[in-house]
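Re-running the complex after MR caught last week's input typo. The corrected sequence lines follow. Everything else is unchanged.
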Amino acid sequence: MSPLLRFMTSRTWLVALAALLVLVAINWYLQPNLMTPRVVRSNLSVFLPVALVAIGQTYVILAGDIDLSVGAIVSLVNVIVVSLIASFGGDVPGILGAMAIGVGVGIACGLVNGFLVAVLRLQSIVSTFATGIVFGALALLVMPTAGGSVPSVYWRSYGGTLGGVPVIYWIYGVSLLMVAFIAARPFFKHLAAVGGHRAASFQTGLPTTRIRIGAYALCGLFSAFAALCLTGETASGDPLLGQALALSSILAVVVGGTALAGGRGSAFGSILGAIVVGTISNVVFFARPPFEYQTLIEGAITLAALAGGVLVARGRRTQ
Amino acid sequence: MAPLLDVAGVAKRFGAVTALSDGALRVGTGEIHALLGANGSGKSTLCKIIAGAVARDAGVLQLHGADAVLKHPRDAERLGVGLFYQELSLVPQLTVADNIFLGHERTAPLGFLSARRKRADVTALISRFAPVLGDGFSPDVPVARLAADQRQIVEILKVLSRKPKLIIFDEATAALDRRQVAIFFDVLRELRAEGVSSIFISHRMDEIFAVSDRITVMRNGVTVASFATADTDQDAVVHAMVGDAPLRERIEHPRPANAAPARITLTSGTSRRLHGVSLSVGAGEILGLGGLQGQGQSVLLQGLFGAAPFTNGTIAIDGKPVPVRSPAAAVRHGVAYVSGDRGRDAALQGRSIFENIANATLVREKRRVFWPRQLKPRFEEALKQLNTKYASLDAPIGSLSGGNQQKVFIARWLATGAKVLLLDDPAKGVDLGAKADFFSLARGLAAEGAGIVFYASDDAELLSVCDRILVFNSGRITAELTGSTLTSFHLTKAAYGEAA
Ligand SMILES: Nc1ncnc2c1ncn2[C@@H]1O[C@H](COP(=O)(O)OP(=O)(O)OP(=O)(O)O)[C@@H](O)[C@H]1O
Ligand SMILES: [Mg+2]
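Corrected-run output:
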């Protein structure tokens, strides 16, 4: 196998990168002001929540499971944080405290999922679908209808800059650092091993149960981050906020080159995947096809992006 | 002094199946201890219990003279036990190096992965086997892309890298050829000199007698005998293995007439690892493929079966040229393929024995709809011919012992009634008795007019069953052995080329 091919196939996110370059070129053609700092920033801030959830989802999928409850976790964290900020009085320490509790809630939801899937050995697709309903119902209990608001210091900071750099870029930066940190730990190899061949991992002496729970906890953590960002974006609480996130995060993960069957992939790819998926919507929006064809075209392009990854993966197997 | 390992009265049931009823094993420090028994006699189960991967129902297990509590493979590893798993414990998606160090990743300060240390350590480990690794082996290649023998070597290195005090090799040589086995044995002997003990499981008698100090024999889940290798012989051991049931006599057969019409002919078959190979197999003939591991034998068989089609060359079946671009096409032309590499090529993991046999029949007979009740008696008959030990056709394939799984894959093709049978190390892990049954079955199929191409990593198998052997080297046929040259001497000499 040629070194070039080996380089490519060991970095499955390269397909997502290639797709992204093509899409950005088209988008730029359709929307000449695309590359102005303001538009770049607004696009990236729209993609950020999906990217964060997709990062968390990557670890779960890599370990051979799936998390359909991420959207509900995002909603739950959002309404809890909004309610807590209100009851803490809206000052900065209160806000930080509410955010910390929100992060704790996200991790706790992940631990519940992990317990059901790894300890009780329920099927992940079914049990996280069910916990998604439960988390969503809890969100409705906390806040029956959309409303409430966060103090302006919250959303102004989120939309503002720090040291001259927009805060959302800081969030991307920190996320990338976390992704790089996790990828450089033995834990990351263990995730891939458990997802690739669970029985072999157990026989090798890996604590497979703990590893899978860890993946869900990370997923809960990143979902909570996404909720905090969305809270800054919408400045209010909404118990249905995260509804579409489960599927779009999974889509981003797969477009980013992670195998849905587990065992192979990267969270970095998922960030690219989230940006690709978002850019596809932009392209379709700016191409202004007849309204009734929009969804169809969006679906077709998404399918093409997915197929690219699958074809490369297949080339890899027959090599 | 207490022995390193002392196991007694160990029992284990899986549902209705009793895998072990009275397992016992005593291994001293610095000893190579062979464990023998027919397929399904409980060897692997006993080993997994010692390695903490399976929990025992009853019995005593002492390591270093103290009762060992083994709730998880990690516990056994801490007590210095390492197990080479018969079905391998490798993750296909991970690279060779990542598999070897899985759970013991090489790290830099602060616990970050260190690519430099990984590379240095893996290179040192591999160097021992470097001369016999074959094409396409590198520490950075995913294990999924390796051949069966290469994967076995990775599993060996993985166990060795943990530096255990007691290593269990559960059929570690099953897919290895002579050269690879020789290096492996050297390693075993060096370990013994360092005071490390090994338990060595194999169905190859010559290996057992070549390397072991003691031999323990199991039969039907019970440990029945234990010998010092120096004080016993093959007959005594075989007798302990099979009890009073006599081994079936080898059926001598008349060599087929040379004028038999060709069943399958290949003209200058070429692919990435095969260079213009031509051969022809007559009806009633068993043609052997010999030579060192990975010289093109498996590639040739996969080419004939359409699993890895030739880039050049023509295949004719019964004199008619046929394009064989896929296994489905091959099967419809009456070609069957039995692989010893059941993990990768053959098994529908998690599915029942019935489904695992049926898939071949369905393709062969182009059936879309079928009634399980019609097929079951046929399958049961095929399994019985090989003495397969199974609870019911509905049991999952994974519940069978390694050798019994292999019998299922052989039965899969026996049930289709093929004209051309391609055997790719088919008897890997199959015990002596069943091997003899299988070979006489193959002989029977040949007598009924099938043409058989047979590759085995074990030379003894080739010599006992083939009418003619083509010896391969680097993707070319370098010698043809017939009649009086069908001997171990000639085969070895041809395999190593003129240099040996
Ligand atoms: N997980 C399981 N579930 C059900 N039955 C099992 C399981 N594992 C083993 N068995 C049964 O226990 C018996 C002993 O199997 P074991 O794998 O220990 O045999 P073995 O001596 O290693 O044979 P081989 O030489 O074929 O590898 C077999 O009859 C097998 O079907
Ligand atoms: Mg076994």
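None of the earlier attempt is carried over here. The interface with chain A takes residues 51, 53, 72-74, 77, 83, 85, 88-94, 98, 102-103, 105, 107, 111-113, 140, 144-145, 158 of chain B (CB under 8 Å). Chain B has 17 helices and 20 strands.
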